[in-house]
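explain this:
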Amino acid sequence: MKKTRYVILGLLRDGSLTGYEIKKCIEVRMSFFWQESFGQIYPELNALLNDGFVTETADERKDNSRRKKKYAITAEGLSEFNRWMGEKNEKDTIRSESLLKLFLATDANARDIVDQLNEMKKQNEEKLLLFAFYSKQLSEYADLHENHKYIHEVLSLGIRQCELYSSWSDSLLQRLKDGHLR
């Protein structure tokens, strides 16, 4: 089952967004557990329009620049979203190319693995800074939307996950440097 539609509908509950804004929300706020490409988002927005789950408006431009299309959830879209929320989840999966490469590595790939681990550590430390910023914002505006308390809980898991990956990368890098990897 396509989950892209439910990601979009869920994000649109808080207000109208462009396809680009939807992609950015997913990329920045959900990156540690969910990804969507523009190639998934725009076709799904068209399907949601056809199904009557979203409406589309274009902003008025005085110049000849391209008009931005904004999407809003309809009552039918909200009903569909709420129906999906009550469904049983499929098996959760997380994909990590870094961990896949480590899993498939041999000693011949040791230098590449060190580079991969350093990049993994860097990415997780960058996410930690971003997640800490969002966590602080959510704490300050916890009562603004009823879903903020749930977002905060998912974000706290993301913070713990990034801390774990960063620490684990450090430990493995040190063991590789010391020659203590078995």
The chain has two domains: 4-85, 97-178. DSSP finds seven helices and two strands in the chain. The helical segments are 4-12, 19-29, 38-51, 75-85, 97-104, 110-140, 148-178. Residues 4-85 form a domain with the Arc Repressor Mutant, subunit A fold (CATH 1.10.10.10).
